Amino acid sequence: MDLRSFIEQLNERGQLHRIGRQVDWKYELGEMTRSDLAPLLFENIKDYPGYRVFTNGLISIAAIGLALAAEAGKSRKELVRQVRKRVANPIAPTRVQSGPIFQNILAGEAVDLLKLPVPHWNICDAGRYIGTWHVNVSRDPEDGSHNLGVYRMQVLGPRQATISTSSKSHLGIQFAKAEAMGKPLEAAVAIGVSEAVFIAAAAGYPGGKDEYELAGALQEKSVELIKCPSIDVEAPADTEILIEGHVMPNVRVLDGPYFDYAGKATSNPKAYLFEATRILFRNSPIFRGAIVGHPRAEDLLLFSVLSEVGLFDFHGSRLRRALQILFLKEHLFMAFQLAGRIGPEMLRVGPFRGKRSKDS
Ligand SMILES: Cc1cc2nc3c(=O)[nH]c(=O)nc-3n(C[C@H](O)[C@H](O)[C@H](O)COP(=O)(O)O)c2cc1C
Fold first, then answer.
1. Residue 347 — pLDDT band, cuts 50, 70, 90?
2. Of all atoms in ligand 1, which is nearest to the CA of residue 205?
3. How many whole angstroms from its chain centre is CA 17?
4. Alpha carbon nearest to ligand 1 atom 22, residue
5. pLDDT at 346 (0 to 100)
6. For the segment 41-60, what is each residue's pLDDT rounded down to a tens digit?
7. Whose CA is nearest to atom 19 of ligand 1?
8. What is the DSSP string of 212-246?
9. Where are the alpha helices (DSSP H) in the chain?
10. Pocket of ligand 1 contains residue 147 by CB under 6 Å
11. How far is the CA of 277 from the centre of ligand 1 (A)?
């Protein structure tokens, strides 16, 4: 089910709140997403006629069940059991030649990330975050395997954005290999993918194993991929927005402050630099984003389901991971957030932090 069909199904079930009045991308959209904890479709964004923004898609167990086309009325326990069963049967992706993503293409000087309705989510954020509920796609420079991940991204300029992650994430490992070869890492950013693909990207899945196969397993259907026109990376054919570009070697930039999952504004002075070379998008694209750091936000619910399925990994220390999984399983979200704030370097470890200690 692509994002549009998911939104339609939420609408048919009376679970979608459609907001037709004009909403400001600066603070207002984030505030509304925090205060109305239902799936929200913003249909009229200030300065961005023709664009829509969707938030809070996975805000409840019922919504996660719907996104994965699990049988209606499943309890949390049943959903977890069904997802576990599905994960045991990976389904290989298939390749297609075209898709609506080719309807609009911006290249060269026309590339400007702020042509997209990127929200400024929180007053304490340093700027506009284009990557909050997106998928970073890249390939291992040695074995060519794909990695899907969700790593926050702040817009720095028309063609530049941060990617904030640790060197232990799978993107970090792939990037280190490219950097050692002295070359940029080709990378794509897919915004508005099916929630199954998003969940696979957010999941802790062994490096080198194809997360598109995990996404296929989650939705019990092969994910259709297109080859990105200008880089050697494959992306979901049904994505709403696709940004092609490179992660630049030997450059680190400041990301943040950003109000992160642990409910605290953090900065990462060693974020990677992403340079966009092309933007592709469907007609009337739907930008998918999220607010995090709120004990009832959709990211924490998703992490708790992933922890029960055995697919949670922030690439932190073993001790912290064990604690976080325990808190998530018990739905102690505030304790989970606190565990994300403390560590050997007090407040400076974890995938959302810049400087990391050796054991984090
Ligand atoms: C909404 C959301 C935001 C996230 N932001 C980040 C982030 O900024 N940096 C990071 O390293 N991980 C972040 N994560 C967690 C990673 O996506 C997760 O650890 C995933 O397993 C990483 O993929 P990998 O194991 O292939 O590296 C986020 C997850 C979600 C759901």
1. very low
2. 25
3. 22
4. 149
5. 35
6. 999 999 999 999 999 999 99
7. 314
8. HHHHHHHHTSPPEEEE-SSSS-EEETT-SEEEEEE
9. 3-12, 28-35, 61-67, 76-87, 170-180, 195-202, 211-219, 298-309, 318-329, 333-341
10. yes
11. 23
How far is the centre of ligand 1, averaged over its atoms, from the C-alpha of 203 (Å)?
Answer: 8
Atom of ligand 1 nearest to the CA of 204: 21
For residues 90 and 66, what is the distance between their CA atoms, to the nearest angstrom?
A: 20
Q: Is 134 in the pocket of ligand 1 (CB under 6 A)?
A: no
Kindly state if the Cβ of 200 falls inside 6 Å of ligand 1.
no
For CATH 2.30.110.10, the residue range(s) in the chain are 91-285
Of 172, 232, 231, 235, the closest CA to residue 207 belongs to: 172
Q: Does ligand 1 come within 6 angstroms of the Cβ of 121?
A: no
Whose tokens are 């400041």? That residue is: 254
Beta strands at 265-281 and 253-259: parallel, antiparallel or unpaired: antiparallel
- 1: closest CA among 58, 50, 60? 58
What is the rounded CA–CA span in Å between residue 127 and residue 49? 21
Residue whose token pair is 């028309």: 158
CA of 50 to the centre of ligand 1 (A): 30
Indicate the fold that domain 91-285 takes in CATH. Pnp Oxidase; Chain A (2.30.110)
Tell me the one-letter amino acid at 113: L
* Gap from CA of 314 to ligand 1 centroid (Å): 7
Q: Which residue puts its alpha carbon closest to atom 20 of ligand 1? A: 202
Q: Which atom of ligand 1 is nearest to the CA of 152?
A: 8
What is the tens place of the pLDDT at every residue in 152-206? 999 999 999 999 999 999 999 999 999 999 999 999 999 999 999 999 999 999 8
The three-state secondary structure class of 275 is: strand
Which of 113, 97, 169, 105 lies closest to 352, judged by CA? 169
Q: What is the pTM of this model?
A: 0.94
Ligand 1 binding pocket includes 258 (Cβ within 6 Å): no
DSSP 268: E
